[in-house]
Amino acid sequence: MIPGVLTVAGSDSGGGAGIQADLKTMLALGVHGMSVITAVTAQNSLGVQGAWELPVEAVRAQYRSVVDDIGVQAVKTGMLASAELVETVAELLAGTDAPAVVDPVGVSKHGDPLLAASALDSVRTKLLPVATVATPNLDEVAQLTGVRVESEEGLRRAAAAVLAYGPRWVLIKGGHLPGDAVDLLTDGSEEHWLRAPRHDNRHTHGTGCTLASAIAAQLAKGRAVPEAVAAAKEYVTGAVAAGFALGEGIGPVDHGWRFRGDA
Ligand code: PXL
Questions:
Q1: CA 117 to centroid of ligand 1, rounded, Å
Q2: In which pathway does it act (predicted)?
C-alpha cells in the first residue's frame, strides 16, 4: 500500500511553496499526496501580490472528503490565514488518529503576512497542543513565545517555550542563524541536534513547507519521529543545494533533485 499524506495549506501560484511544494515533496518521497486548500495566494519570485482565504465550510468539507473515505497516514499543516481556520483545523486534527506535523507559518520569505496577528493565540492554545511535531523557525518562535534566539545555545530555550504549549515534539529550525544550518529536535527528554552545511544559495523559497511535508511523508511510511526528521532534513538539504533561479527574485528549492540525471 502507498501511504497517504494530507497537506492542509495555502496555494502558491509560483509553485515553490505551499500546497505545490508539499505535493511535489510527497511525490519525491514515494507517498500519495492529498490537499485541503485553506487559501489561495497570487505569488511569484518577488513576493505575494494577493491572498484569499477559503470559507471554513470549504476547508472542513475537503478534509472530511479525504479522511472519511481515503484515510490518511499523516497530516501536515501550513498557511492557515485566520483564527477561524486555525481553530477549525485544530478541531479536525484532534479527531484524526494520524500524526500531525504543524508548520506554524507566520510570514512568507518576503515578509508578507500569511497568518493574521489575531490568530496567534489560537495557534498557541488550539493548534500546537494537537501537533505530533511542530516546526517553527526562529521568527515564528519569537512571535509565538516571545523568546528571541541569536545563537545555537538559545535553541534549547526556544524548544522549551514551544513545548510548553503541548506539541509532542518540536523541531526548532535555526537556519537563519549564521554558520551551519542547525536544528534542534526534542520532546523535552531526548535531544537530537541536526546539522547541515550552509549552501550559499539564495533560491530557498519553500524550504519550510518542504521540510514539514518531508517529515509527514516519513512518518506516514512508519518511521519514528527522530528518524523521520533526520531523513527529511537530508532531503531538504539536497533540495536547497539544488535551488534554482526563477523569475526576478527568490527561486524555489528543487523538489526533484534526487531524480536529476537519471530521468
Ligand atoms: O513558507 C511559508 C509559506 C506557506 N504557505 C504558502 C506560502 C509560503 C511562503 O511563501 O506561499 C502558501
A1: 16
A2: Cofactor biosynthesis; thiamine diphosphate biosynthesis; 4-amino-2-methyl-5-diphosphomethylpyrimidine from 5-amino-1-(5-phospho-D-ribosyl)imidazole: step 3/3
